[in-house]
Amino acid sequence: MRPKRIWLVAAVAALTLKLFTYEYYLADDPTCGIAARLRPSMVSHQLLRRGDPVLLSDENRFLGAWFYEAMVKWGYLAVIAAGPICWFVRKQRGSPS
């Protein structure tokens, strides 16, 4: 697979993770996890809404929570920016100095 296609798949996956999932918590229970939503939103941490499918659940803190939080806070921006930056650097190296 070409680097451009790999970047495109990674960027779409990162945006989908940011817009269509959220870390949920319950008001009266220490259970938390990741839930999906049908409408896109930039909110990444909220009370579990009725009808949203739960993708991952744990009583205290789910495995990989630090990775999920990093991806939805700033990681998706890094993935999106990486493609154009790499393309620009590659073009600069290829041009005569």
Structure in words:
This protein has 97 residues and is α+β, with helices and mostly antiparallel strands. The protein has helices spanning 3-20, 65-94; strands at residues 21-26, 29-36, 45-47, 54-58. It has a 4-stranded mixed sheet with strand order 3-1-2-4. A hairpin with a 2-residue loop joins strand 1 and strand 2 (29-36). The chain is elongated and about 60 Å long. The two termini are 30 Å apart.
Brief summary:
The chain is α+β, with helices and mostly antiparallel strands.
Helix content: 40-55%
Q: What is the makeup of the main sheet?
A: 4 strands, mixed
Q: How confident overall, as mean pLDDT?
A: 89
Give the terminus-to-terminus CA distance: 30 Å
> How many strands?
4
Any low-confidence stretches, pLDDT <50, length ≥5? Answer: none
CA-atom Rg in angstroms: 17 Å
What spatial order of strands do you see in the largest sheet?
3-1-2-4
Secondary-structure element pattern, one letter each: HEEEEH
Number of helices: 2
Features:
2 helices, alpha+beta, four-stranded mixed beta sheet, 97 residues, 23% strand, elongated
Outline the secondary-structure elements.
Layout: H1 3-20, E1 21-26, E2 29-36, E3 45-47, E4 54-58, H2 65-94
Parallel strand pairs: 1-3
Antiparallel strand pairs: 1-2, 2-4
Helix pairs in contact: 1-2
